[in-house]
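Hi U.,

Before I forget, here's the chain from the pilot set. I'm dumping it here mostly so it's searchable later in email.
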Amino acid sequence: MAHQLLKGKRGIIFGALDENSIAWKTALRVKEEGAYFTLTNAPIALRMGKINELAKACDAQVIPADATSEQELHHLFTKSIEILGGKLDFVLHSIGMSPNVRKDKSYGDLNYDWFLKTLDISGVSFHKVLQTAEKTDAMNEWGSVVALSYIAAQRTFPDYSDMAQAKSVLESIARSYGYRFAKLKKVRVNTISQSPTKTTAGAGISGFDVFYDYAQMMSPLGNASAEDCANYIVLMFSDYTRMVTMQNLMHDGGFSSTGITEDLIERLTKP
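Structure:
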């Protein structure tokens, strides 16, 4: 059900790959709520995904941009303002990739060049997005920038590997740049720590299915779906959250506050 929470707002959505991705579902919901936006992803992701289908459904233009490239980000922001007819009210950073995870490298045998790529793509790119938004004066006052994180920034999950460090960097940037952007233009910056979600990227992590089931048992409300996350992002883009900034917001069905559950006890009780 749409309530026009974002009527007339403009923005950029990073990271929509296919219909399973949170960014994809967010784009559909943001459109329903009355916003206009451009879509972007790295050129290789555009070739692999189905973003043109999403663009058609949302009446949005696609602007290829590597989020690790300051030059391409500058073009993205200036072009988006031109296309949308004004400054931006929201940005979604939904970007994450680890070559070490993709190639099943053990955490004790990381390729450090790949590690740096993980940090750049999944963490430092958030700073580049925010810095570019500031330098191009792209954001309206009371705008909202959201990045997707994961609880591995605070806790250890063996197969998440160097992505855990990238998410820690991401959340730290949200606090530091959140302070700066709030003082400059009242722009708020937050991260959302989402439940394990059956996206194309998430499903590629070793042992994902087992962990997904474990998180389901550990979350009193169950795992938050990609659709649930899209709804939360809509709220964070809306004027109802104008005083929320520099936060890492847990969106995980209660997983992060639960020690153990009856479901898990029942599963582990010996006969």
